[in-house]
Amino acid sequence: MSPNALQDILQEPSFGSAKETVNNLPVVELAHCLSDIDYRKRVLAFRLLEKEPAIEVFEHLHPDQQADLVQDMENPEAIQLLAAMDPDDRVQLIEELPAKITKRLIAGLDPEARESVNTLLNYPERSAGRIMSPRYIVVRSQATAEEAFS
To answer: Is residue 31 part of a domain?
Structure first.
């Protein structure tokens, strides 16, 4: 689908068909289309998405576009998206947002997510620590692949 076709669908007076269309497009294709359409239409299309596709599409957007969407959304919607992201991606997005919005969003996260964000934010900008993921597993060097996956 082209960005122009998506904008045309979002012009319709009834959003039922637009909602069905955006929820049935492949995630990468929709993210690409959203990147190339008017900001207000991007927000509208994003709000028409169901929860799971919205999270996937959001992760495919450029951090600047993510920040724009978060600033325009209601607090619970934005917190839900932020909580679903990997910690390192969460920090990258937070760096793009104004401080006022950042504080509000971090305060709305559950304690574990808030702690991981604050831990990463304590590292200097552009350092390995700032972009690393705190999610990891430990496997003994003698472990078999089967043992590692169990």
So the answer is: yes
Other beta carbons within 10 angstroms of residue 146's beta carbon come to 7
Count of residues in the chain: 150
Count of the separate structural domains present in the chain: 2
> Model's pTM, two decimal places?
0.60
Tell me the pLDDT tens digit for each residue of 117-137.
888 888 888 888 877 777 777
Domain that holds residue 144: 88-150
- 92 and 50 inside one domain: no
